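User: Run a structure prediction on this.
Assistant: Running it now.
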Amino acid sequence: MKRSWRGVLLMCGVLFLNIVFTQKAVHQFYYERYEQTILYAVLNLAVFPLALWIYYREKKVD
């Protein structure tokens, strides 16, 4: 299956956001800021449906 560059770049952006949110959550957990840890964990989970939507949209275009 051939993917478009736009879809690849969007998925790279989502992966980047996942990495950033995970790193921020770990950092906040280390310094015992649990409210912020939960916030970044929820943001990390919220990005997942966006990745699925991009994936299925790109799969449908082919």
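Residues 5-61 form one domain.
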